[in-house]
Design goal:
Length: 137
């Protein structure tokens, strides 16, 4: 069992947000910047050997997220198999029947809260429990 647990928290990244008020060119630049930010965070997680990453909602904007973003998310999480990603879906990326969270495409090291009632994930090897819930609509 580990003496310390390294936890990183992030939220409200809003990948694929339309940024419609910025215009077509600037909104596309902003979306690329957010993807780069996500990739940089994943690099940092690897650098510090984080045990758990808590994602507190709105990782992406559900109505606008595309397959490329889903693939990016899945591949980045899979590239860090020793880290657990615990996601609490937010109001912009709720846990719904058609969401990426319910698709069974996420790697095994990703845990997603799937109810508006309190749930928990237990990680016995690091003596840690994480509690949370999800937006489901």
């Amino acid at each position: 069992m580990k003496d310390t647990v390294r936890i990183i928290h992030m939220g409200d990244l809003h990948l694929d947000s339309p940024f419609s008020s910025l215009g077509v060119d600037k909104s596309e630049i902003r979306r690329r910047e957010l993807r780069a930010t996500f990739t940089s965070i994943m690099y940092y997680i690897k650098e510090v050997a984080a045990d758990i990453v808590l994602i507190s909602g709105d990782l992406f904007d559900d109505g606008f997220a595309n397959a490329e973003t889903a693939e990016l998310i899945c591949s980045q999480f899979a590239a860090l198999p020793n880290c657990r990603f615990v996601i609490s879906p937010g109001n912009h990326d709720p846990y719904t029947r058609g969401s990426i969270y319910a698709s069974k495409k996420l790697p095994k090291n990703v845990c997603v809260f799937s109810s508006e009632g309190l749930q928990r994930f237990v990680f016995e090897d690091i003596n840690t429990e994480v509690y949370g819930w999800a937006f489901c609509s």
